[in-house]
Amino acid sequence: MIPENIILNFGATLKQYSKERPIFNEGEQADFYYQLKTGHVKMFNLTEEGKEFVQGFFESGNSFGEPPLFGDFKYPATALTLVDSDIYLLPKAAFFDLLKLHPDIHLNFTKMICKRMIYKAKIAREVSIYPPEHRILTLLHHLKSNAKVTHHFEVPLTRQQISELTGLRVETVIRAIKKLEKTNALAIIDRKVVL
């Protein structure tokens, strides 16, 4: 999100995280801006029963965990690497200095956070009201619109990841996807879900 030369000029360090290592935990103080150079991260909460509810997946080039920096509150979720990852860390004060000197980057953050808020509102509504098929389609259509794809969109998520993002069991996701395929709401091509 922030060009490499700019983030380095403001004092970012590049840190290597091994697979399945926490970057920060729910309830910790937010002191850094995080941006993935390479790797894959998930943010999640654990339910009382120990089930993960995934807030989001982030890949190379993505940033994550910014709202607590802006809102001055603690992390509402845990961030964990899914593969070995290289992540830029920029101290909070330097991050705000960077935004003040680069209003275009600041505007991009505002837009990105608004998109994430809309996604969270959609998912909250889906989880509380709608059946599994509707929840899954809402998630997939949201991903497609963010990818700005007009025709065939190959969903970049596994059935497990769809389960984690919708709060459904994997078995329920598999059954719902089969139902959706029968109604032509989506297709399965080479074991991939396509909208």
What's the helix and strand layout?
Elements: H1 4-9, E1 13-17, E2 22-24, E3 32-38, E4 40-46, E5 52-59, E6 63-64, H2 67-71, E7 78-81, E8 85-91, H3 92-101, H4 103-129, H5 132-147, H6 159-166, H7 170-182, E9 187-189, E10 192-194
Antiparallel strand pairs: 1-8, 2-7, 3-6, 3-8, 4-5, 4-7, 9-10
What would you say about this model in short?
It holds the Pfam family HTH_Crp_2. The chain is an alpha+beta fold and 195 residues long.
Computed over alpha carbons, the radius of gyration is: 18 Å
- The CATH topology of the largest domain: Jelly Rolls
How much helical structure, as a percent, in the residues? 40-55%
Count of helical segments? 7
Q: Using the alpha-carbon principal axes, give the shape.
A: globular
Order of helices and strands: HEEEEEEHEEHHHHHEE
Specify the CATH class of the largest domain: Mainly Beta
The counted number of beta strands is 10
- Overall mean pLDDT score? 91
GO molecular function: DNA binding; DNA-binding transcription factor activity
Domain HTH crp-type: 130-195
Domain Cyclic nucleotide-binding: 15-99
InterPro entries: cNMP-bd_dom, cNMP-bd_dom_sf, Env_Response_Regulators, HTH_CRP, RmlC-like_jellyroll, WH_DNA-bd_sf
